[in-house]
Design a protein that fits this description.
This protein is α/β, with parallel strands linked by helices and about 240 residues long. It folds into 2 domains: about 1-165, Rossmann fold, CATH 3.40.50; about 180-235, no CATH class. Helix content is about 25%, strand content about 25%. The structure holds zinc ion (ZN). Zinc ion (ZN) binds next to loops. Zinc ion binds near residues 190, 192, 212, 214 and 215.
C-alpha cells in the first residue's frame, strides 16, 4: 500500500518507523517537512497528498499534528503520540483513525490523545497503548504500526485477527481494546432492544443464533462492520429447518 509518512520535529526522512514500513513492503512517501514553519510543513504534506493520493497517512508527533491539518477526505490516519496541542490545536478526528501512544511518553502526555478522541466524540478504544516512550521505535510498536496501517487501508477499520502471527504476544492491550465494544438490536418477536457484546476479533461480518433474553425466542443475529468501524446489527426470527 501507499503510505504518506509525516515525520516529527527535527526527525529526518529515513528514520526507523518509515524504514520499518518499507521493510514490510509498503511504498512510503516521506517528505522533508519544515521544522520551523508549521504552515509550510502542512503545505508540503498537502501537496504530496494531493499528487499521490496515499492509502493511509501516518504522522509522528509533530507530523501527526500536520496530518490533523491536512484536507485528506476519507484517507485513514494513524497518529503516533500526536502533538496537536503544541501545533495549532485540532479539528475533529475522523472515525477512520487510530492513535498509538505510550502512557510513559514523557514528551506528549497520553491524556492529550484521550482529549483528542473525547472532544471528537470518538471512543477511547481508538487509542492503542503501545511502547514505553515517545519514539515508539521498539519492535512491538512497529508491529502494531504496521498492523494499524494494514487494517485501516483495507477499509475495515476493525480487525480480523485470525492470524495470530501478525501480533506480538505482548500486544494484548491492543487486542483487548478491540474486544470490549457493544451494540444492540431490536428483537423481532418482542420488540425489546437487546444489548450484545461485540468481539471484533471474530471478523467484520458475523452471523449467529441467540435466544432473546427477554422473550426467549431464538433470533439469528447479523453483525456487520462498515468502513467507518461502526457496527450494524439486526435480528431475524430463526427459520425452522
Ligand atoms: Zn424477544
Amino acid at each position: 500500500m501507499k503510505i504518506l509518512f509525516l515525520h516529527g520535529w527535527h526527525s529526518v526522512p529515513g528514520g526507523v518507523k518509515p524504514s520499518s514500513l518499507i521493510a514490510q513492503g509498503h511504498w512510503v512517501l516521506n517528505p522533508a517537512l519544515d521544522d520551523d514553519d508549521f504552515s509550510s510543513a502542512v503545505r508540503t504534506a498537502q501537496a504530496v497528498y494531493d499528487s499521490q493520493t496515499p492509502d493511509v497517512i501516518v504522522g509522528s508527533s509533530r507530523g501527526a499534528a500536520v496530518a490533523l491539518h491536512l484536507n485528506s477526505a476519507n484517507t485513514p490516519l494513524v497518529l503516533l503520540c500526536p502533538a496537536w496541542r503544541n501545533y495549532g490545536g485540532h479539528r475533529p478526528l475522523k472515525p477512520s483513525s487510530l492513535i498509538l501512544h505510550s502512557r510513559q511518553d514523557a514528551v506528549i502526555p497520553f491524556s492529550d490523545s484521550e482529549e483528542l478522541v473525547r472532544s471528537s466524540g470518538l471512543p477511547p478504544e481508538m487509542i492503542l497503548e503501545v511502547g514505553r516512550d515517545h519514539r515508539l521505535a521498539d519492535p512491538e510498536s512497529l508491529s502494531v504500526l504496521h498492523w494499524a496501517c494494514t487494517l485501516l487501508a483495507s477499509g475495515n477499520h476493525l480487525p480480523t485477527l485470525n492470524d495470530d502471527s501478525q501480533f506480538a504476544p505482548d500486544s494484548s492491550d491492543s487486542r483487548n481494546a478491540l474486544t470490549h465494544q457493544e451494540a444492540s438490536y431490536i428483537c423481532d418477536a418482542c420488540g425489546e432492544e437487546i444489548v450484545i457484546p461485540l468481539d471484533l476479533t471474530e471478523g467484520t461480518s458475523q452471523t449467529y443464533v441467540e435466544d432473546c433474553p427477554v422473550c426467549c425466542r431464538a433470533n439469528t443475529i447479523h453483525v456487520r462492520m462498515d468502513d467507518y468501524g461502526q457496527a450494524h446489527v439486526h435480528a431475524d426470527p430463526e427459520q425452522d429447518p
